[in-house]
Amino acid sequence: MTFEVVRADDPRCAVLEADGYTVVGESWAARLRDPDRAMLEQAGRRAEGVVVRELGVESAAAVLEVETANEPDYPYTPATHRVVGSLETIRELWTAGRVFGAFDGGRLVAVTHIRLDGETEFTSVLDGYRGRGVGQAVKAASILALLEQGVRVFGTGGAAVNDASLGANLALGYVVEERWRSYAPPEG
Ligand SMILES: CC(C)(COP(=O)(O)OP(=O)(O)OC[C@H]1O[C@@H](n2cnc3c(N)ncnc32)[C@H](O)[C@@H]1OP(=O)(O)O)[C@@H](O)C(=O)NCCC(=O)NCCS
Description:
Elements: E1 4-7, H1 12-18, E2 22-33, H2 37-46, E3 51-55, H3 60-70, H4 87-91, H5 93-96, E4 97-104, E5 107-115, E6 120-125, H6 134-148, E7 153-159, H7 163-171, E8 175-184
Antiparallel strand pairs: 1-8, 2-7, 2-8, 3-4, 4-5, 5-6
Helix pairs in contact: 2-6
The protein binds coenzyme A.
């Protein structure tokens, strides 16, 4: 099925709805402009019991393990779904950007991937470690690293139903700037 992904303030929404298209998913895009370093450093320290650091490609197998475990937990919308893929796909993350993670002892429990232009591609935290600042901590580390490289505007996005993702991003200072709707065509 071909979905139409349209900004919620686009007049095309009314046209599609009049033509019988139905909304099958909602998503948002948020930006963080000129972030507050001190706040990010605090977010990086807040998650107790884990150590946050940048990952090299030698961690690809561990990243694959975390992402495969979390894949079913990424809420699906036509605009935001995540397909983890193979070890080769994971290794390509290092070509496209930088990867940060959180460890509990020797176990990788959270991962975030950020492109060199400041756009976060995904963040995930293992079930059992969620809701205690770990997602914010890995993301804060990635933003701080790119701030060092001169990036000043950071982007991210997610499904409207993903309260934890939205909450984590708002806590880091991201502002939702766009809302999107995914439309499915009328049946028949
Ligand atoms: C989204 C995800 C990465 C968030 O990581 P996390 O470590 O749980 O998030 P944090 O604890 O750092 O922050 C969550 C914030 O959202 C708030 N929140 C709001 N609704 C929430 C909910 N239903 N569940 C958890 N947190 C919620 C929390 O209070 C917290 O804000 P606070 O620090 O101001 O109190 C994690 O839930 C996850 O891995 N989900 C599955 C994969 C996914 O959906 N990834 C996002 C798409 S890229």
